[in-house]
Design brief:
The chain has 287 residues and is an all-beta fold. The chain is 3% helix and 55% strand. The strands form 2 sheets. The protein has a 13-stranded antiparallel sheet with strand order 1-2-3-4-5-6-9-10-11-12-13-14-15. Strand 3 and strand 4 form a beta hairpin. The chain is globular, with a radius of gyration of 20 Å. The chain starts with a strand and ends with a strand.
Length: 287
């Protein structure tokens, strides 16, 4: 089971849930797979996401009018990933996200301004997490390890701290979003050796018929750039992604056709190696 929760949501400003779910940490990962603007999430998602965890969360939406519009999430979790019912070292994962909807309208986790938002909607957020574990990476398949870092030999070998800053904007067929991440992994049994990873992406999409009458109304063009430092031992290594997509929305994200070209490359000391360009066409139908 991917998600299984019990939630108490009587008050908008104070809600509680228990179970297993996709932790509200990064905007990109919180967008459902069926609602993505691109076929896949960016290359930085694999490195920085908390993905699904088990535990409890207190969260809510506070709207006092105008710029006094906020969302918050504070979670106490096992920190062991999907399907793990216990914490290996007895120390929980702490995670939190604070989002300011500064234009006065709640800005949810979504891609593509299909509804052509009549008034600008925007949000900025900060989030952070801290845990000790044998794991340093999570995905929908479960816990794992970052490249060049083995799964721990002792339950609390790795002390992991990470944070992000993200933002999103929607207005009249245009939407943009981006995230900046940092993640510090301290190996507590090998001289407190530290590995710090940094990465970011920016992404935007637009229905050009808002400007050009000849452009088909259901057709959106979108682009993304992402990069991160994998810390493979060479200070010149960085991964890059450049993606261009065209989405034809038949029935919103429930029925759409996407054509996409993506370049993913690794740069070593100013020399590009391992470039990969992919062309894909996908018809995505959700029920």
């Amino acid at each position: 089971t991917l998600n299984a929760t019990i939630a108490l949501e009587k008050y908008d400003g104070l809600k509680v849930k228990f179970g297993q779910w996709k932790v509200e940490y990064s905007r990109e990962r919180s967008v459902s797979s069926g609602g993505q603007q691109m076929m896949d999430r960016s290359i930085i998602n694999r490195v920085f996401t908390l993905d699904r965890q088990q535990g409890m969360s207190v969260y809510g939406h506070i709207d006092e009018g105008g710029a006094a519009n906020f969302n918050y999430w504070a979670a106490l979790l096992t920190g062991s990933g999907r399907g793990e019912y216990h914490n290996h070292d007895g120390n929980p994962m702490y995670a939190g996200r604070f989002q300011w909807n500064f234009l006065g309208k709640e800005t949810g986790f979504k891609n593509s301004d299909i509804k052509r938002t009549p008034e600008p909607a925007a949000a900025v957020a900060v989030a952070g997490a801290k845990y000790r574990s044998i794991y340093t990476r999570f995905s929908s398949s479960g816990p794992g390890a970052l490249d060049n870092i083995d799964i721990g030999e002792t339950p609390d070998q790795y002390d992991v701290k990470q944070y992000l800053v993200d933002g999103a904007f929607f207005y009249q067929g245009f939407n943009a979003q981006g995230e900046y991440h940092e993640k510090e992994v301290t190996d507590r049994i090998n001289g407190n050796r530290q590995t710090t990873l940094r990465g970011y992406y920016v992404q935007a999409g637009y229905f050009l018929n808002e400007q050009f009458a000849w452009w088909p109304a259901p057709l959106e063009v979108a682009a993304r750039y992402a990069t991160y430092d994998p810390k493979t031992g060479d200070d010149g290594d960085r991964f890059y992604e450049r993606t261009l997509a065209f989405n034809w929305f038949i029935d919103g994200h429930n029925n759409k056709v996407t054509a996409e070209v993506s370049e993913i490359s690794m740069e070593q000391q100013s020399e590009e190696v391992g470039d990969r360009i992919t062309w894909r066409l996908q018809w995505d139908v959700s029920f």
